[in-house]
Amino acid sequence: MKTLKTRLKNGLDGCYLLEGEDLYLYDRAFSMIKKACNIGLEDFDIIKFDDENFSMQALLSAVEVMPMASDYKLVVVKNVAKVGENDKKLLLDYLKNPAETTVIVIFDYFNRFEFIKNDCAFVDCRRFDKFTASAVIVNEFAKRGKQISAEAVDMLLDYCNGYLSRVNNEIDKLCYYDLNESLVTKKLVEELVTKDSEYVVFELTDALGKKNADKALTILNQMSKEQGLLGLITSHFRRLFFISTADMDDKNLASLLGVKEFAISKQRQQVKNFSKMQLKKIYALLEQVDYAIKSGAMLQENAVYYLILSILYI
Fold first, then answer.
1. Residue 20 bridge partners (DSSP)
2. For residues 132 and 127, what is the distance between their CA atoms, to the nearest angstrom?
3. Per-residue pLDDT at 223
4. What is the spatial distance between Cα 267 and Cα 198, in angstroms, rounded to a whole number?
5. What mean pLDDT comes out for the span 52-59?
6. Separation between Cα atoms, residue 117 and residue 17, nearest integer Å
7. What is the value of pTM for the model shown?
8. Which residues make beta-bridge pairs with 107?
9. Considering only CA atoms, which of 146, 49, 143 is closest in space to residue 104?
10. Is 152 a residue whose pLDDT tops 90?
11. Which residues is 74 bridged to in the sheet?
12. pLDDT tens column, 239-249
């Protein structure tokens, strides 16, 4: 993603594969590619496929159509959840000799097109590291004639769990809340920005690791009605257990657990709050609670409180 602008100056590739979890970066990358294609008439020169209308044969027919009022025909593939073995072969064959006047852009949210990664231009849309994300945020506020304090940037990133797509949705709210104030502060972020549920679970886990019962129960009471809370807490502690026991780097562990590398690197910070024995006991407790719910011995709404109170005393 960081080098895409430079690469586009050197010319367009026949196919771009966008992978990662930050939708803001997908949109930003697509805008850059679209601009480089010099699209004149979008209705004629941009063809879109999603999970409802996608077929490899239709895509291969579309790429052969010449552009009408643009330098390139742009074929966009989004939200495709299934790609058959024959489809893979057809696409790989096409990429050996792609049409010179067509550019394919694949938004690969589900990692279904990983098989072409070495045969096309790859664009990494994973969440930026903190330094890069902070620079993007400061620049976005500057575009609106505002400044944001370093503390406020950190809090905004934390509350949005590192997703610039979420940050982007909050910027206008923060900028235009007080038109007479040029500086956006940590206090304003705290008042106006809703915390991402994964970040709240991170806060809850941090409180549990530090045996801060009051804070843990306050957080739990605030989010007790949230859908899927138990699943989020369970997944979080299972990952902590694997991080503490597996002798693997963040990338390989993320691949093993089916999560993003960003989540592993952030949770690794919390492992130091628990001993390996504590995490082993918590892992066993998760299995016990899961069985109790499935067997009807415990209601799900009660299970969250039982789990949190039990962890406090492990």
1. none
2. 10
3. 81
4. 11
5. 94
6. 7
7. 0.78
8. 18, 78
9. 49
10. yes
11. 46, 103
12. 999 999 888 88
